[in-house]
Amino acid sequence: MKKPKDTIEISASLPRMAMMVAGCAGFIAIGLVLLSVADWLAWIIGLSVIIFFGLIATVSVWRLFTLRGNVVTLAPEGFRDIRIAPQIVRWSEIEDVGTWRSPSQKVMILKVDGDTWKRLTLTPLAQRSRTGNIMLGADGLPVATAELKVVYENLYEDTMRYWKAYRGKP
Fold first, then answer.
1. pLDDT tens digits for 20-59?
2. Interatomic CA distance for residues 13 and 68, integer angstroms
């Protein structure tokens, strides 16, 4: 297999992030309508919707204003997603590359060993979501494409190409 020599850098997609914020605002509006209903179940559902999508909207707005430049980098040295950690994860540290699926999206999961977890300086969001991700079956570094200028299939194929070429195993 011919090894890729170039570095692939993927930046954030402002239109995609803006659409995510708009979608959250729509769900929050639905939650507010449910709060106005006298039924206690509707009120609980409405409050839950507001809290859940409010948190997602908060993260999305924050990223909309802070994610600039390259977010994901694939290079001969390794993989980096600044939404997870500022350090590069060497290809040899990645044990497996998989996909976690929900009804609406696919997330690439990079399975790494315990020493790599200890070495990485996880972002606050990555730290807080780790336990929930494991409970959902996404045990590894989760790389979502919803905010990026790339479709999932292309990112997955490029990652597999680099991983197979540089992981140090036949």
1. 899 999 999 999 999 988 789 999 999 999 999 999 899 8
2. 9
Residue with tokens 């001969």: 76
CA dist 73 and 148 (Å) reads 12
The DSSP-derived string for 149-162 is: SS-HHHHHHHHHHH
DSSP assignment string, 33-73: HHHTSS-HHHHHHHHHHHHHHHHHHHHHHHHHHH--SEEEE
Cβ atoms 105, 98 nearer than 8 A: no
Low-confidence ranges of the chain (pLDDT < 50): none
Q: Is the dihedral of CA 137, 119, 62, 74 positive or negative?
A: negative
pLDDT of residue 127: 86
Predicted pLDDT at 121: 93
- 151-162 residues labelled b (16+ CB within 10 A) or e (exposed): ebeebbebbebb
Q: How far apart are CA 39 and CA 31, in angstroms?
A: 13
Q: Is 26 exposed, middle or buried (0-12, 13-18, 19+ CB in 10 A)?
A: exposed
Beta bridge partners of 142: 109
